[in-house]
Amino acid sequence: MSDMAQKPDLRDLTAEQLARLLADLGEKPFRARQVSQWLHGHGVDDIAEMTSLSKTLRAKLSAVGRLTAMGPAKVLQSADGTRKLLFLLEDGQAIESVLMPEDGHHTLCVSTQVGCRQGCRFCATASLGLRRNLRPAEILGQVLAARRLCDEFRPLTNLVFMGMGEPLDNLDNVIVALGHILGEHGLQMSQRRVTVSTVGLVDRLPLLAAASPCALAISLNAPNEHIRRQIMPVTKRFGLEALRRAIVDYPLKPTRRVTLEYVLLGGVNDRPEHARELARWAKGLPVKVNLIAFNPHQAGPFQAPEAAAVEEFQNVLIEGHVTALLRRSRGQDIAAACGQLVAGQSADGAPGQPLTGPQASA
Fold it and tell me: Which residues are catalytic?
């Protein structure tokens, strides 16, 4: 294991680094394309499975590199069809991803860290603290594993980096993973269908914009500084005015918008006056708002909003000329809904139901 740990995982390398590695092994440039097809197109977990390569080349690759197998250790299925995937990592740490069925496709909620250090009070993951960053291979491995659970009738087409962790707090590794996800050498997923979410690390937004054309979402959750400081510690570093300027400066294609995620906390930020304040804050910005009713869990002191309050909040935003969509909570019965991921521990004490049959994982 120690020898393996010293070898680079081939999916941790950028396309350029992989090409240099093969050149150093005396191979011609087209070999990099072949290897990339095995890594991403086929998603193999063992270099020996790259059967179109000669045994000699496979042996050379195995001598200098390795692959991380990322099959889920457990899959829980919700009554609504959502599946929560638990991955046990090489060092014994655990992460979760959420695979959500949609009309004609699947969306995967991807994790980028083991735990999180941002401390958002409504998020169960925050109770873990930050244990470590995920490597690019561990980020991409979630996508490849989820893809194997989908079929041709509902393929995996959409990714949201909204799972465990703050993506911009692990930006270097996230950028490498995005390169494999969006690049011609990799999965070739649509830029519009891959969204990276952040609590608002303003100083890193230009770096993300320069490195990747992915879609951007910002976890806002409050219409003013007073409320946001109470529920999101990041506000002490980057206030709403700085965040607003960052959105104005963020380079977007003409038809693209930044998504503002707004978790509605009962009695905290869900009143009509909060919606009117949010509409004023968002005026003139290239944004849309995703409204998410809080999903209760033991780690959070908040309550879900009333259904009538959610509807009124949305209507006030629309009347204020702000595009506002209500995001339906998925997987609540297996603690897979937004803000509930705690790596195998049920955030609300409710046990999920393991899958049975060929898609189940032991």
Answer: 96, 338
